[in-house]
UniProtKB/TrEMBL annotation:
Region of interest: Disordered: 55-87
Signal peptide: 1-26
Protein name (database record): CapA family protein
Family from the record: Belongs to the CapA family.
InterPro entries: Capsule_synth_CapA, CW_Biosynth-Accessory, Metallo-depent_PP-like
Keywords: Signal
Residue ranges annotated for the Capsule synthesis protein CapA domain, each copy included: 90-325
Regions of compositional bias (Low complexity) in chain numbering: 55-85
PROSITE patterns documented for this protein: PROKAR_LIPOPROTEIN (PS51257)
CDD domains for this protein: MPP_CapA (cd07381)
């Protein structure tokens, strides 16, 4: 497999545009799009449509110079799968990750933070998961039951494990207030890892990750639908930093636009009812809306347990919940079950799906499941699919 190179994230581009006096447009207008071609590209082009003549059609093209302190390509796990033919690609998806309490020490050596789990993440053409933490060592702790923060080396850990893009559209990205959010955006700007779903303004937060994988143009969107303090206080606005919200029109409009342009569209959501294996009505309604807009696959996290995954009758693949992946606590129950879902695409269709079950060990690492544990999780995976009303194979 060709070694992957990283585009500039939307958040840092937006910050650069603001610093240069190129304000982004209103939240409903076209925002920055992170673009990279066939994973060997080292230049990212970003187009912003603004309201003023000076901001309209601004283009920023920047060549990245990776920091010598970050993991290099040689530190990433080697690819073990055979490359699929042109026009097809694989996308690996995992759930929630944070670095608190027992997992915080994993960042002492970011290149090995994921331990045995890294090999499972690196096999696909593209890998994505949810980073559920503020990236700061300061900030104002919010008044919440649980708050998470981690140093910028958390991004290095994801990069070293083979993750290609992360979402931070979740209910913990702003756990340390406005200054913590600015630290988060600065860390993203200094990282080789593209992060979506959070940004310096709405245009940046809602911007999709875009790439071409084996000849297939791909757009990945990320939003949160968890109604709590983060959405109430830190939903990104025209002139304010924050996370991308599923309750604003930018998501469906962006999906529809990308699909009409002939792009394969994947949406990664933070949603659902915690500890419930069956999707709730809000999840199903939003999945219907995204499928109608042209999404090829809809995946999500937040429930802390595995939820149903499979094909709808219209051929759209939905994975309602991928559970905790690398996590700060164990609970001795189904909350410790997780795994890596790998989707195979042919053009705009998900043609196959495989789930590699894992289970949290005492250090918070997702260890590939074996024996009776593997069989139990796979049975759970099948049962949850039936609960969600999804099929185990694509429609003919």
């Amino acid at each position: 497999m060709t070694q992957r190179r990283r585009p500039w994230p939307a958040a840092v581009v937006a910050l650069a545009l603001l610093a240069a006096g190129c304000g982004s447009g209103a939240a409903g207008e076209a925002g920055p799009v992170v673009t990279v071609t066939e994973r060997t590209t080292v230049v990212a082009s970003v187009v912003v449509s603004g309201t003023s003549s000076t901001a309209s059609d601004a283009v920023v093209a920047t060549t990245r110079t990776p920091s010598s302190t970050r993991p290099t390509s040689s530190s990433r796990p080697p690819a073990t799968s055979t490359a699929p033919p042109e026009g097809t690609f694989t996308l690996a998806l995992a759930g929630d990750v944070n670095f608190s309490e027992r997992t915080r020490d994993r960042l002492d050596d970011p290149a090995t933070a994921f331990g045995v789990a890294a090999a499972g993440l690196a096999r696909a053409d593209l890998t994505m998961l949810n980073l559920e933490t503020a990236i700061t060592e300061a900030g104002e702790q919010q008044d919440k039951s649980y708050t998470f923060r981690a140093p910028a080396s958390a991004l290095d850990a994801l990069w070293g494990a083979g993750v290609d893009v992360a979402t931070m559209a979740n209910n913990h990205a702003a756990d340390y207030g406005a200054s913590g959010l600015q630290d988060t955006l600065a860390a993203i700007g200094g990282s080789d890892l593209p992060v979506i779903g959070v940004g310096a303004d709405a245009a940046a937060a809602y911007a999709p990750f875009e790439t071409t994988v084996r000849g297939v143009p791909l757009s990945v969107f990320a939003v949160t639908a968890v109604r709590e303090q983060t959405l109430a206080n830190f939903t990104a606005g025209p002139d304010s930093a924050g996370v991308a919200s599923a309750f604003e029109p930018e998501l469906v409009a962006g999906v529809r636009k990308a699909a009409k342009a002939g792009r394969t569209v994947v949406v990664y959501l933070h949603w659902g009812t915690e500890y419930e294996a069956c999707p709730d009505g809000d999840q199903q309604a939003l999945a219907n809306e995204l499928a109608a807009a042209g999404a090829s696959a809809v995946v999500g996290t937040h429930a802390h347990v595995l939820q149903g995954a499979g094909w709808r009758s219209d051929g759209v693949y939905v994975a309602y919940g991928l559970s905790n992946y690398l996590w700060w606590r164990s609970f001795g129950n189904e909350q410790d079950d997780n795994g890596v879902l790998t989707l195979s695409f042919t053009g705009r269709k998900v043609t196959a799906a495989s789930f590699a079950p894992a289970h949290l060990d005492d250090a918070g690492i997702p260890v590939p499941a074996t024996g009776a544990t593997r069989e139990r999780i796979l049975q759970q995976w099948d049962d949850d699919r039936e609960c969600a009303g999804l099929a185990a194979a694509p429609p003919r």
